[in-house]
Amino acid sequence: MMKKTRRRPSGPTLKDKQSAKTKSALIRAAKKLFEEYGYHNVSVTDIARAAGVSHSMINVHFNAKAGLLYQIIHESNAAQTEEVTELLQQGGTVIERLERIVRSFAEHDLKDPALLAVMQSYFWAWPQETEAENREQLVEALTPARQVLKDGVASGELMAALDLDRAIRAIFAIYTMGLRPAVYDGASIDDCVEEIMAQVRMLLRL
């Protein structure tokens, strides 16, 4: 007589559901506390207490307080990507279209320069899986800008030999460095966008 094998239940397990519930509670609590008191004035104990869980759960699910902040920003960035995709539909020259995209991202990223500084430092220390997730989101977020460059090559506004992938990586590097004056020198969004676009023009020879 053959022994029946025990089938594993399909779908999320009770443990999976509890884990998702804990993560959701921590994200909600952290978002509320960060908005009310500021990132640096909130401890992991504060967050855990507000979420009704042990503070060790922050390390289990998010690696650190900065990892929890990353998840909040990651979710916010998804909505930002949709907004930038809509901007792609507006006409204009390559520079005009790129500037609209850059400004949209800058307005989003510079809502809280102090939080941006935290994330800038954290991306050198986050775990491998977070890096992989961030790269995937970046590809999606930068797709509109890549399309603008592709359209520019097709129309003859940009040189035919332009390497789109390298150009996008270079523009993103310019953008990232271009926000630092807002964090450290109190520069305005307009100042940052102006300098970023000046460097982009030089890169694209426009």
Give an account of the 3D structure:
By secondary structure, the protein is mostly helical. It contains 10 helices and no strands. The chain has 2 domains: 47 residues, Homeodomain-like (Arc Repressor Mutant, subunit A); 140 residues, Tetracycline Repressor, domain 2 (Orthogonal Bundle), CATH 1.10.357.10. It is 74% helix and 0% strand. The chain is elongated, with a radius of gyration of 21 Å. The model has no long low-confidence stretch (mean pLDDT 87).
Summarize, please.
This protein has 206 residues and is an all-alpha fold.
The CATH superfamily of the largest domain appears as Tetracycline Repressor, domain 2
Distance between the termini: 79 Å
In CATH, the architecture of the largest domain is Orthogonal Bundle
Going by helix content, strand content and strand pairing, the class is mainly alpha
Number of strands: 0
Q: Give the topology string: H per helix, E per strand.
A: HHHHHHHHHH
Name the shape in a single word: elongated
Total number of distinct structural domains: 2
Characteristics of this structure?
10 helices, mainly alpha, Arc Repressor Mutant, subunit A, 74% helix, Tetracycline Repressor, domain 2, 206 residues, single chain
Write the layout of secondary structure elements.
Blueprint: H1 14-37, H2 44-51, H3 56-62, H4 65-87, H5 94-109, H6 113-122, H7 128-155, H8 164-178, H9 180-184, H10 189-204
Helix pairs in contact: 1-2, 1-3, 1-4, 3-4, 4-5, 4-6, 4-7, 5-7, 5-10, 7-8, 8-10
